[in-house]
Design a protein that fits this description.
This protein is α+β, with helices and mostly antiparallel strands and about 100 residues long. It is built from 4 helices and 4 strands.
Length: about 100
């Protein structure tokens, strides 16, 4: 399930987003992810091109294979791409989106 070229756009002013990115970068032994702060020109361009409204993006976004994951879905998908023990987190995908959003 490892995919090189997954882009993680994160809110660099968010403590939670920064901690998650640091965690991912330590666990990402296969260099699956490219980390882009939301204030960069590239992040702004990607957000605009993918028609993401500023209010919809708060902390973390994962772009991969023409699919965009936001918030807790981005966290779940990112952990799944790490493989190993992290695939267990995939069970959270069966929860309805409303419940996943509240967990986030």
């Amino acid at each position: 399930m490892r995919n090189k070229g997954c882009l993680i756009i994160f809110n660099e002013s968010s403590l939670h987003a920064n901690r998650f990115v640091r965690f991912l970068s330590k666990k990402d032994k296969q260099d699956c992810f490219v980390y882009i702060p939301n204030t960069s020109n590239l992040a702004r361009l990607l957000i605009e091109r993918n028609n993401i409204k500023r209010k919809d993006f708060k902390y973390i976004m994962l772009l991969t294979n023409n699919t965009i994951y936001l918030h807790f879905d981005a966290v779940i998908e990112s952990l799944l791409r790490l493989g190993s023990i992290w695939i267990v987190i995939g069970v959270l995908k069966i929860l309805p989106k409303m419940i996943r959003s509240n967990l986030y």
